[in-house]
Amino acid sequence: MANYNPNSEVSDDETPQIRDYKTSGDIEVPDRIIDQIIGQEEAVETVRKAAKQRRNVLLIGEPGVGKSMLAKGMAELLPPEELQDILVYPNMEDNQNPLIGVMPAGEGKNVVTNYKVKAKGQEERKNMFMIAIISLILVIGFVMQQFLAAIIAAGIVFLALQQMKPRSTVMVPKLLINNNKRNMAPFVDATGAHAGALLGDVRHDPYQSGGLGTPAHERVEAGMIHKANKGVLYVDEIGSMQMKTQQELLTAMQEKKYQITGQSETSSGAMVRSQEVPCDFVLVASGNLHVLEGMHPALRSRIRGYGYEVFMKDSMKDTEENRDKLVQFVAQEVKKDGRIPHFSKEAVAEIIHEAQRRAGKKDSLTLKLRDLGGLVRAAGDIAKGEKADHVTVDHVLNAKKLARTLEQQIADRYIVQKKRYRVFKSEGGEVGKVNGLAIIGDRSGIIMPIAAEAAPAQSKDEGKIIATGKLGEIAREAVQNVSALVKKHTGTDISNYDIHIQFLQSYEGVEGDSASVSVATAVVSALENIPVDQSVALTGSLSIRGDVLPVGGVTGKIEAAAEAGIRKVLIPKSNMEDVLIEERYRDKIEIVPIENLSEVLEHTLSGKGKKSLMDKMQKITDMVPHGILQKPATH
Ligand SMILES: Nc1ncnc2c1ncn2[C@@H]1O[C@H](COP(=O)(O)OP(=O)(O)OP(=O)(O)O)[C@@H](O)[C@H]1O
């Protein structure tokens, strides 16, 4: 693995020497979608196997990691020679039950053409007959010098024949599924489709009686399950599909054929029901883990029993081989976009650097490639706007500033607003108030100020923990965890107090489980009446033993703290290797690794009372060397 230090500026010798190329334009992009999928080797392998055996697949994973790409790739692997055309014929015996014809792809069009020729011939013969009769009447009338009578008689005969003229006996079938000239099995994305679009429908006809209406067979519309016959039917977020529709989907999957009927009960289409229409598709369902909750159990068990379930990766190891794949990814995205210039080698390296940052953990590269593709396009647009020959590092850096996600923009606004209204401070000391850190969305950090107040318990039996809002549960848990520690080591019994916890102006989308260390600090400060240094912000999850456990999104949190003017940030020691903050923040903020609550208090508490509390704790630590409150490390 090349010694690529992401925390330093990209320079020549740090640029991954992955391939001999000048710009991404020199990189070959594979033709097949399946070969373009990066970092999901197991999933690709499974899909290859599933395609061979025509098995259904359930893909579970984060958004934008390549689920729909895999489904498309699978369609490419299915044999196109099996494709069929499907025709709907009128049923002379039962108009409401149109007949279905299936033939190899390409033949359907010829059949319809033959029928049209026949129908046209029949129509022409009928018209000739009518013209002959009318001409005869007119000739006889003229010969008998009865002009008016002849014209009237011709008119009456014309109308009578028109009225009596039987409907053409040759009714042209409708080409329901046309696979003519298709060189790949169909890929049909049925995400969010309603029942009619998915299962087929029969259109309403207001003139259904009296012979004026459109024949039933012409009103039959194929559903996506039929269009996906011999190909792939892809349904993302399958759990949000109505249960009844999922049930019907399962039936179609098992039977491999499904009758088409009008989906609306009040429509005349509901009276029509076609013969069974083939729908021999492979289902590729996808979504995140929550999707399983909304999934019909029988459908899930069908896939489990007769198919494959795949959990997609959201990051890959940071190896030279995998960085190579990201080079290919950049080339692919540029080619797919078709309008932006190619990337210089250094600009590609900057994208790889961003992939490392976005992975949020040590030695990893993100596989949330839809988002990374967004950065590629944004940088490309900037370069194109400047009429540059290729995209440079500066273009990528500018794109990172400009193409901020919604969550990043919300996070920025939060910082500005909270600063303006002084919801948090970045200097001085305050009792019971802590600058916690949280993440919104994927990786955007925000300051989440937490305030605690301790008052003697109102109830005689036991004090209460009063914490409201979405994060209340986390606060209660954190206080419960810390209560044993506090009692044992400071002598203060939390149960004698009512503890109020408030997340100041917290945002609903915040992931809060990493706030427990901050909550505990706020509570200790409030109970002991010792101020907390407001130039410090912290994140970490607290165990009941007082250990600080790792959390997610440390890079985003540290950057948010630096942005907010905080000078020191405490993060779990085990997260240190996940830190990949941008160069511009490096001198602004000190990052301190913490392992236990003692260290947290050592770095956060300030002023009067701190020394005596720490001394008290130190004594106990000396007595219990491997206890919960270990000796604070010196940093
Ligand atoms: N593993 C990957 N390899 C290459 N490109 C990828 C990969 N994952 C995502 N992409 C890029 O991101 C785009 C979106 O990916 P895709 O639609 O397959 O994601 P998804 O997992 O289906 O997401 P969602 O569930 O939100 O639809 C792709 O068109 C491709 O440009």
Q: Tell me the structural class.
A: alpha/beta
CATH topology term of the largest domain: Ribosomal Protein S5, domain 2
Rounded mean pLDDT score: 84
CATH architect. name of the largest domain: 2-Layer Sandwich
Rg, alpha carbons = 36 Å
Residue runs with pLDDT of under 50 for 5 or more positions = 1-17, 625-635
Put simply, the count of helices is 20
The total count of strands amounts to: 26
Silhouette: elongated
Q: Major β-sheet, in short? A: 8 strands, mixed
Pfam family, one: Lon_C
Organism: Methanobacterium formicicum (strain DSM 3637 / PP1)
Subunit structure: Homohexamer. Organized in a ring with a central cavity.
Domain Sigma-54 factor interaction: 159-304
Précis, in short:
With 635 residues, the protein is α/β, with parallel strands linked by helices.
Walk me through what this model shows:
The structure is a single chain. Helix content is 41%, strand content 18%. Strands 16, 17, 18, 19, 20, 22, 25 and 26 form an eight-stranded mixed beta sheet that branches. It has a five-stranded parallel beta sheet with strand order 5-8-11-1-12, with helices on both faces. The protein has a three-stranded antiparallel beta sheet with strand order 3-2-4, with helices on one face. It contains 20 helices and 26 strands. It is elongated. It has four domains: 1-25 and 315-403, Helicase, Ruva Protein, domain 3 (Orthogonal Bundle); 81-105 and 181-310, Rossmann fold, CATH 3.40.50; 107-177, no CATH class; 413-623, Ribosomal Protein S5, domain 2, CATH 3.30.230.10. Bound molecules: adenosine-5'-triphosphate. Adenosine-5'-triphosphate is lined by residues 36-40, 63-69, 236, 286, 329, 333, 367, 369-370, 373.
